[in-house]
């Protein structure tokens, strides 16, 4: 019996080897981007730089910080993310709390009303027409209001409230004459910091990273979020060059030069805030995924 | 002093139910106020577009509004089904989603591997590092692809040329599109996808393993006969949820990766809706195609859920 299959030690070694291999594959592109952002673009494009930085230069970052579009985009993204997250919490938390209370009648209908939106939606065009009719085009509302809260988050937050807010405490306060507003503010919210953190983080990340709402709802360049600016720098200009269809010839040479200098630096500048913050908040994110998996 | 229901002597009446509802509303009206922002949001941003989807059966004219526009019945659908690009769009949409679905087991396998690691620090680092790509935006991801796969200056082609091969224009070749799309997505999602499975694995009863050890089961046998079946319910639910996103997933990334040279395989239903609807302004036609897309999606979800309910104990409803 003992000799059947691999011994524990061999198994562990092989397993560790495989995991290491996978981790390296996942991490390599990230390291490459970081190294490329501070290397001489010539060394990067000829393949001289493949792991560690070569001919270190900060020219890329300098260009990024000189680029007015990137600054504006950054500012806009921060603003959209903060505002959007606040509204998200403002809509999500009271609703999820109310749905967690036993004394709320008609819960079933309300839940169906919300859950049905997961199953079916009008689609891109009818939604666009509504946003347009409401006069939200080219305003911050077009970015923060559509998708401000999903049925899924409401279910998740509701499950959290059901499990963590002691019913006795709420009822006792009610008998003492506290209103639901008061209870929500003074008792429920302070007990719910983990779920608030989780929900805020998930929503903030998705707002930070989204480009499509801005693409269809905004036409004013001054309002573009960072991701749309990145799309121009990293994809539209690059692909344009590749296809040979870039319009203005005189700026082409300049574009190529700037683009190759800037592209890795701009990835770092736009992504680093999340990648730096995330390991410290990892437990919140993991928690969020897990609460989300609780079956209703 | 405000108090709960029992102390508020509301007189007995034939219409007791009505009184109870009224009493409930009187006592808990603030809870209903709590619901208002969310219900308003869902009504305006989700239900009005559901009503607006009727433009798929109309010839939408902006000045006449949704109600005033003339009915056309199934004209838009017929036009779509009879068009030469219909089969191409359907094929591309299905192909890319099935391809994606084929990789569904990878996070499970990776989670089983991570779960076998003893070393706390090594395991933790492996997790933290493989979760990281999840936080990269689609724009940056596609930007990285453009940079890495560039035929002249990209890392991948530099390596191919250095090894004596010939540079490949990956992003402008239809035959490469699906592979690049799906595998770059896997790079981003593999680590993150293990979180739920790892939690499920942490809940496996250790006594099962002890008993199996006594019976002489190997490590591999224990993984396959104990760990895997233990997380099967989780697997089924996640699989159904994945199917629920079928037809719609990844559209934003496809749109970024698309160009005139790879459109033979990169044209999918959703990008087509975007082009015809928002770029060309054929609102009704695009709404019809979008509706077709979501109906297929619902049918798939219902079928898979039904199969799951019949074959295992796990289903969404």
UniProtKB/TrEMBL annotation, chain A:
InterPro entries: MetI-like, MetI-like_sf. Keywords: Cell membrane, Membrane, Transmembrane, Transmembrane helix, Transport. One of its GO terms (cellular component) is plasma membrane. It is found in: Cell membrane. PROSITE patterns: ABC_TM1. The chain crosses the membrane at residues 21-39, 78-97, 109-129, 141-161, 187-208, 261-281. GO terms for biological process: transmembrane transport. Residues 74-274 form the ABC transmembrane type-1 domain. The keyword tRNA processing does not apply. This is Sugar ABC transporter permease. It is a multi-pass membrane protein. It comes from the Bacteria. Belongs to the binding-protein-dependent transport system permease family. Its main location: membrane.
TrEMBL record, chain B:
The chain crosses the membrane at residues 25-48, 98-117, 129-149, 187-205, 226-247, 283-304. One of its GO terms (cellular component) is plasma membrane. Its main location: membrane. It is found in: Cell membrane. It is a multi-pass membrane protein. GO terms for biological process: transmembrane transport. The keyword Electron transport does not apply. It comes from the Bacteria. The keyword Glycosyltransferase does not apply. Belongs to the binding-protein-dependent transport system permease family. This is Sugar ABC transporter permease. It comes from Virgibacillus oceani. The lineage of its organism: Bacteria, Bacillati, Bacillota, Bacilli, Bacillales.
